[in-house]
Amino acid sequence: MATLTATPTTVQLSKDEILRYSRHLIMPEVGMEGQLKLKAAKVLCVGTGGLGSPLALYLAAAGIGKLGIVDFDVVDFTNLQRQVIHGTSDVGRPKLHSARETIQEINPNVEVATYETRLTSENALDIIREYDIVADGTDNFPTRYLVNDACVLLGKPNVYGSIFRFEGQASVFYAKEGPCYRCLYPEPPPPGLVPSCAEGGVLGVLPGIIGCIQALQTIKLVLGKGQTLVGRLLLFDALNLKFRELKLRKNPECSICGADPTITELIDYEEFCGIRGEEHVTPSKVPEITPLEVKKMEDEQRPFVLIDVREPHEFQICRIPGSKLIPLGEVPRRMHELNSADDIVVHCRSGMRSAQAVEFLMKSGFRKIHNLKGGILAWSDEVDPSVPKY
Amino acid sequence: MPVRVIIPTPLRQYTGRKEFVEVEAKNVAEALANLTAQYGDLRRHLYTDDGKLRSFVNIYLGEEDIRYLQKDQTPLHDQDELSIVPSIAGGTKLRCICR
Prior knowledge:
The structure holds two protein chains of two kinds.
Chain A: H1 15-20, H2 22-25, H3 31-40, E1 42-46, H4 52-62, E2 66-70, H5 95-106, E3 111-115, H6 124-129, E4 133-136, H7 141-154, E5 158-164, E6 167-173, H8 181-184, H9 205-223, E7 232-237, E8 242-247, H10 269-272, E9 288-289, H11 291-299, E10 305-308, H12 312-315, E11 324-325, H13 331-334, E12 344-347, H14 352-363, E13 369-372, H15 375-382
Parallel strand pairs in A: 1-2, 1-4, 2-3, 4-5, 9-13, 10-11, 10-12, 12-13
Antiparallel strand pairs in A: 5-6, 6-7, 7-8
Helix pairs in contact in A: 4-5, 4-9
Chain B: E1 2-6, E2 20-24, H1 28-38, H2 43-46, E3 57-61, E4 64-65, E5 81-86
Parallel strand pairs in B: 1-5
Antiparallel strand pairs in B: 1-2, 3-4, 3-5
């Protein structure tokens, strides 16, 4: 494998650094030469979330000379289960601030460059150009294709990781030496086929494992030692603790790294992934009712039936008293449990699944039916704050 | 000839949570046809409306991508292992898209 960085002549290790990196220095695979390469290396971490946390932590500890970090998000409580670069006292702060502090606490010798922005087609080439390697810790489709394309156009290796629930993937996409992400997947799934929040979630340790594999790949690329994942896709199943490996081939017809590329500059990735304006889209126009209106019906003792279409494991987290659980997938076959003469209010976590249920039930002849606007989250905000949010 | 089809996590909701399904098939096309005949909801996740394998789903025989073998005509032998490997992205915020 080609070494990305030549043996540097301009950097040196101080006495303190020699002590700090002694466990690297006494290994022939790293040694002084390798440690100097690490110190001369510039790595960009895109995102400081589940994957980006261990990535940045281990790259900093290993003595990467310059770490760029890109993020625009703010730490919230739901991050802490897996985003170990941030702590409880960081909730509400920009992720870049806490990430920078943690990195500098681990290793003050690392130069940290922060980019408090979303990586976009406008800024990606300028940001990435400054670095030797990009480690993509964002794990969403538009950014993944953006990072891939920018890396192909600039000739940089892209250290990839992705996670879903308890399954992870990792590889190194490096068009100069092997396939790129588009060789593997020419197009992203349309948003309609992306799993909903009923199927989401991630085991907190999983991004730790995949992010550490990304850090390992990055360090090996810098050192020029061992076999990287160029041309290989690593699959990890955390439940069964199984690693599998698949061969990746360069697609001669790849739209960006193939013989006759059709993509020669960065494009609009939100549009490419079909999610332009997605956040404003509701599935359909179904009759809605607000949490306060439902509370008023309760207070006035007007009879109605409250149906919860979330999954049983969500029902265990919290529920609205008096609600009946019929998970969305069971609505068609359990419809007979409902009486179309009753007033029915349907809810889920945030109002999207329940809108789908209402739409289905209306098509089946239910008329006195409403969707609880904002779901149980809004119920917690507006009516009963003792209901936990998740 | 029974072959084993490994179902990835995101698609297990359509196979009754099964991690793999055994099907009888002489080639990849037959294996997937038998699989989707058993689990109908899988079909739209694997194929476009005009019957093509979706571009974010790859099928591997062992560790080889069938695109570089004989595609869906790739012959199968007893005890072969087929993997469905879709692109995944779990790091996005909860996105309630349920259509």
